[in-house]
Amino acid sequence: MLALGLAGTVWLAYALVTAGARAIVPGLVGVGASWSLSAWTRGAGAPGGTVLAAVGIFVAAEIAYWSLEQASVPDEGELVARRAAGLALRASGALVLVAFVLAALGLRPGGGLVIETVGVLAAVGLLAIVLVLARAVYGAER
Amino acid sequence: MTDDVVRYATPKLGGYVVLTALGLLSSLIFARPELAAVSAPFAVVLAVGLTVSRRPDLRMHVEVDRDRVLEGDEVVLEIELDARDSVPRLELLVEVPRGLELVSGTNRTALRLELGEQRLLELRFRCTHWGAPRLGDAHLRVGDAAGLLVWEQTLEQGTVMRVYPRPEELRQLVGPRETQLFTGNRVSRAKGEGLEFADVRSFVPGDRIRRINWRASARRGELWVNEFHAERNADVILFLDSFVDARRGDRGTLDEAVRAAATLTERYLLEKDRVGLVNFGGVLNWLRPGTGLVQRYRIVEALLNTEITLSYAWKEIDVLPRGTLPPKALVLALTPLLDDRAIGALLDLRARGFDLVIVEVSPLPYAETPPGELGELAFRLWKLRREGRRLQYERAGAPVVEWHERTPLTSVLEGVNASRRHARARV
Prior knowledge:
The structure holds 2 protein chains of 2 kinds.
Chain A: H1 2-17, H2 24-42, H3 50-72, H4 77-104, H5 113-141
Helix pairs in contact in A: 1-2, 2-3, 3-4, 4-5
Chain B: E1 6-9, H1 11-30, H2 33-52, E2 58-64, E3 68-70, E4 74-83, E5 87-94, E6 100-104, E7 109-113, E8 118-127, E9 134-135, E10 138-143, E11 149-155, E12 159-160, E13 162-164, E14 183-191, E15 197-202, H3 214-220, E16 224-232, E17 235-242, E18 247-248, E19 251-252, H4 253-270, E20 274-281, E21 285-290, H5 292-304, E22 330-335, H6 340-351, E23 355-361, H7 372-395, E24 400-403, H8 409-426
Parallel strand pairs in B: 3-13, 17-20, 17-22, 22-23, 23-24
Antiparallel strand pairs in B: 1-11, 2-4, 4-8, 5-7, 5-10, 6-8, 9-12, 10-11, 14-16, 15-16, 18-19, 20-21
Helix pairs in contact in B: 1-2, 4-5
């Protein structure tokens, strides 16, 4: 399972390095399958961290396709900031959506919605800080 | 964006469809509902993204600040974007033709335009090579907010520019042996109205009083008058050999020859000479001799369209129409002396009595010695053969001056004048 996850990650990295759009899906599927098998073998109804895993895979996919676009034509500074904000919004929406779907399906996510929300918000906050720093560096260079 | 817009799905759309389908299918097959939850964000992005995406309404206008420039000048391309609808991501790429290089501005860029926003982008290009490049054709690619669909269009609003070769400074021109009948700046051998003193002769009825040379008349006891050389123009035919071009990278013999031809055209026309052009190559072009600014532009335009066209057809000087090569014209050939057809035609011209000067645009800087002893031997033989050809021309009375890359044209022309003076002294 670890090997499957690693292979998926390596495949995804290869896709990004070579700017090969077709290789992104197998990479994400590998990572997703690794997580799913891991949860399955533990035998839980709804594995812990489902929300995090779902949002993580979604954000990874969004960033991967975004980075492919950057490889061909880079965004201007203002557009990067807007797209980063849009990504954060979509990640938050995905978080709520997955939690809602799990609740609707009658499954109990392992860590509890509040804890996972805090975790995801922390990740989004970290991303925002990185982006603010990147913009500051970009502005200083200009 | 107009009707010739192509819409297509991005790899992201395909990827999200696959991820959604895999998540839902595996959820069903393995009875793991959380897999459906994992695929839910992808499904929602697909559904919402495809529902809200629509064809963008964007207008673009491209304008070049000036379309006639000299080599080395800079031009500004203004791109005016007018968004009638919000454009989440617009990729813009302006085609940069050969001979232009981007100096400032970002050509390949992605930007966002709000509803009703107008934006002006400026790209500054330097014209590095003469020619007639077309600037302003642009490729637009507009993506929707979710990045699932893309509309692409190529806008052909380009302007055909004229990048003229930058004329070189010339101290002196190659003077023709014979002048024509029209008034010009050249001192003719014939006597007539002019400024240059030629001779004195006895007075005859009808001579002007002011022409009387009083000193000579006093010495000889009868009236003597001064005679002057007439000032006439000349016919100059620029013979451009465009059969073959020795080239390395951006530089080649044809480039140098065209630059030289443009410079010579300008200078000879300033001297009130009539200048014509014979572009002798795969495609034959000619311009009958003429004077003035219009003729200058005609010749430079013809030079800008000069290119190497591969042809195996044998061509002789007879293919040129009458009047292209007027009698007593100075034929100034710019040739790398690589093609037998051009070499033969020049010998033919000399045999017909034309005053021929050959500026050999040396292909040696563009040629590499082949590896190995045999290669070196072949290279030396080739150079010897070229030397032999030069001697052949000189025996026929046509001086050949070798012009190496980056040598000023003026020094080459001085070499031509020196060799012609030497030839006259020998005769």
